[in-house]
Design brief:
This protein is 26% helix and 27% strand. With 330 residues, the chain is α+β, with helices and mostly antiparallel strands. The protein is elongated, with a radius of gyration of 29 Å.
């Protein structure tokens, strides 16, 4: 009897020592997003007979992007899963017809399963994934979330910011940084940056078009933009404020102080010398009053406050909030 009991106990101990994977006869690990596959909320890029993607790559149904990106299902797994891409104007009909969309869910644990020798253990918050080289080439600035959490609120934040800034130093421009570091823009980051926040003005017109945060507004300036022998002159008020600058005018000294992006430009009516961060710089034209309005040399003021200026063939003068006109592929 004692021998039988000993054998039973030994069998139990052996069973308990077998990994769960082996106990289920090699059953695959349950995917936290299986329910979304079944519902059709996500579709594999290259589906197998079960609707799974061998690289863990799935398109997300338009309208379900945020629900999936910040789902508790992703928070409650140690598989490393990211959501990236765009939430902007995704077409539901196209998703039904072609099975594609602008936003994707990517199971990095699946994607890099065959590269453990190179990357180590591919699990959420595992030390092997908290390395710069792990993320290099894996993501771009359209990253939305990591395991159901905005990437900016994860342990990966500093690594990812360093990686993004190394891809393009221009992202440190305040006009771009706001869209990169604030989670509220996740899913819209690329569109916001490439939408080129700024203003459009035209010589001989008092119209101004303002582009900001994916919206466009048509407004009026207090007076027309003019050309002074080829130098565009803008009114003191109405242009620089729309670019985010703070403009102050001292009527007693007739001094104008414009501050933006940590830089300061000081001008004076009747003078063609400006102080740029305390350094005297010659301007192409004097600051002067015309028809009761103080006029400033557009390009000089804008560029010395780190705003790019471009003249288009149709006569449009584009002034960006950023220092750069066309960001690279980031």
């Amino acid at each position: 009897m004692k021998k039988i009991i000993s054998m039973i106990i030994a069998a139990i101990l052996i069973f308990l020592s077998i990994p769960a994977f082996a106990q289920t006869g090699g059953q695959e690990e349950q995917l936290p997003y299986q329910e979304w596959i079944d519902k059709g909320w996500i579709k594999a890029v290259s589906p197998d007979e079960k609707g799974h993607d061998r690289l863990g790559w799935y398109y997300i149904m338009p309208g379900k992007e945020k629900e999936i990106a910040y789902s508790d299902k992703l928070k409650n797994t140690d598989r490393l899963i990211i959501v990236d891409g765009s939430f902007y104007k995704n077409d539901l009909d196209y998703y039904y017809k072609e099975g594609r969309s602008g936003a994707t869910l990517r199971d990095i644990t699946t994607l890099r399963e065959s590269y453990k020798d190179l990357y180590g253990e591919i699990r959420y918050n595992h030390p092997d994934t908290l390395k710069y080289d792990f993320w290099k080439g894996l993501v771009t600035i359209n990253l939305v979330s990591i395991n159901g959490t905005p990437w900016q609120e994860t342990k990966y934040k500093d690594i990812l910011l360093r990686y993004f800034y190394n891809r393009w130093e221009g992202l440190k421009d305040p006009a771009y940084t706001k869209y990169l570091v604030d989670p509220k823009w996740n899913g819209y980051t690329v569109e916001c940056i490439y939408n080129w926040d700024g203003v459009d003005v035209w010589i001989g017109k008092d119209d101004i078009t303002v582009r900001y945060e994916l919206k466009e507004y048509n407004k009026k300036l207090p007076t027309k933009v003019i050309s002074d022998n080829g130098v565009a002159m803008i009114p003191l008020r109405g242009v620089m404020e729309e670019l985010g600058a703070v403009v102050d005018y001292n009527a007693k000294t007739q001094q104008i102080t414009i501050k933006d992006k940590g830089k300061t430009v000081v001008l004076k009516i009747g003078s063609d010398t400006a102080l740029v961060d305390g350094r005297a710089v010659k301007m192409p034209r004097k600051v002067y009053v015309k028809n009761g309005y103080t006029m400033l040399p557009l390009r000089f003021v804008a560029e010395n406050l780190d705003h790019a200026v471009e003249y288009l063939k149709d006569g449009t003068i584009m002034i960006w909030r950023a220092k750069y006109t066309t960001p690279p592929s980031i």
